[in-house]
Predict the structure.
Amino acid sequence: MFLQTGIITSIKYSVFTIAVVAFAILSICSFKQASAQDSENAKSAWSAGIAGIGSLTPYRGVSSESLIVPIVAYEGERIIWRGPSFQYKFTGTERGEPSLRLSIELAPNELEASESNELNGIEDRNLSFLAGLRYVYPTAYGQFNAVYQTDITGEHNGQRGALNFERPIFQDPQRRWMINAGVQVEYLSSNYADYYFGISREEAARSIFEEYAVGAVWQGGITLGGYYQFNQDWQVIVSTRFLSLASDIKNSPIVEDDYTIDGFIGVTYQF
């Protein structure tokens, strides 16, 4: 979840930052669904808007990015589509019900080594699409969200899992605005983590770095976000996430930071 407006520092659409948009909208809108479970006016809808996003990548010599991008989303009884994220509900079609879903989305990791003068000899880490199951469990105290997915593009054949808990900390009685906070635990399989943060024998032979393997890792983070609804059609969404990297990832020679921070702010119109 994520926050940033301002100058565009890159004209290309970073896969990582696009994934940031999807994650931010997914998290905030999921919480809005839970808070609106007793609304008789809940409806399927298209929405579109514009977003400013920013991210601090942990890779050595790779600068932070900020972009302005269009966003499009659709939410029906069973189908949810938000940018590069697609979900299909097997159960829990009513708002506020626990829901088991098919989930397809971009992996939140990517590296273009050519952007750094310090990563000569290191290959790019390409985008990958992940598919798996997501379980959403709303409660009176907050919302649990668990997901486990595997690579379906053949880039690394790894898996990613995550467990999130979010709850409102401040909320308008009429639900026109809300601020929520959460915690996240993320699991990356050895194939996944090694692909994005390891160094192969071939890369070590043509670079200044030694061969480095990364095993399966667990890492944790915190989130803060919210929304403000101007009326039934217009709203602004803001979100940030801080992720503390696992020690095996921190110790990778191609990584220079111990954490990542992402930010997002978007304005959307619901049709």
